[in-house]
């Protein structure tokens, strides 16, 4: 039986704790915040409630596998509700596109919105994405990183390489398959699921769209924070000890391997294994002492492009919006200008800034747990944003900046036909700087490093760290961000550690 210290109670850390405790290890989970969940947070005031991180679950089978491996069915712990329609889109010219929750109905919906033949274009692309998924799921998403061998696993045949096309970008794939400009915009959006730029992100990210449509989008009744609470309860039931309000300030290394962690108050917790669910860049920059074994990883992270962050408004609204969808996305006229701004490239080269005309994403579940009465709504409003980077980029703590940009986002909503300013009870603003403080993600980068470039996409920080006894899970480690992938990172790490 190994003594295991898990840093962070994001779903990657909690899933690792549950699996390792079920395998018989002595597990202690350490969380700086007063509650579990990490980026899967919850904010409540005056009867209004908001998920402040992910708003849907895809690939629920990954969580069914987690719960089955640790003691009982997922559905005994949470209530999953299929989201249908999945998303209501509105393009800059006012064209609406409502995507059904069932993949078989999607082509017809696209034909209705964008014209005959457009549904077939999208269906052909999804067929290509399905083939990409079959090729990459087991050798990449469910297996540990193995350096260059990771990419070699994808090269089992020439036809597989041609299908995945690692040299092609997501934007390039769109140009090859999609003639309608709105469909290209739609595919571009899936780069943001990994905090990336579609002009640099790999074509294989089309699998995100495929997974969302093939396996459905799901909501957890009561808010997605219930999923984090359920995994924490499962870990505790298996014997894990969860300590909130316990910030880790150092990973201890002795004799060339990890020896435990030191907490902010000076307490040292000895451990044979340390599983880090915190941001990988933060781990290597601040939690680990200088060590020659970590130099290569530090250099790689320094060369990588950090993922984008998010600027969030939590809107408590009176009244209800007729015909409102669970998820709504309002696209700008110039999507490239948005990516240029948040990454500081192109027309904003070297000077990242809040996008002047951003895409606006709105999540508003029809769930009594999120509102004080039937005649009210709670909107989580997100726009892509540059990370918090004082001195070299955007300092989100600059006095007045957050309030000015919040007003700009509300104005953007109004211009696109959703003026809610006269319905506003109150508004809470959350910036990338707030995300950094709350979750210790460097700069508030949601996914650690972006997938801008093939190597960045396929060679994220590995689950086995360069110091013996150190393991990484969560959205900044392999295989990437998003609720299903962080659970897979925990499955990979637990498999490498093995039973007691």
TrEMBL record:
Alphabetically ordered keywords of this record: Carotenoid biosynthesis, Oxidoreductase
UniProt-listed InterPro entries: Amino_oxidase, Carotenoid/retinoid_OxRdtase, FAD/NAD-bd_sf
Chain ranges of the Amine oxidase domain: 11-315
Stretches for region Disordered: 354-375
MF terms in GO: oxidoreductase activity
SUPFAM superfamilies: FAD/NAD(P)-binding domain
Biological processes per GO annotation: carotenoid biosynthetic process
Pathway(s) it belongs to: Carotenoid biosynthesis
Gene3D superfamilies linked to this entry: FAD/NAD(P)-binding domain
Protein family (similarity comment): Belongs to the carotenoid/retinoid oxidoreductase family.
Family matches, as PANTHER family: PHYTOENE DESATURASE
Protein's name according to its UniProt entry: Phytoene desaturase
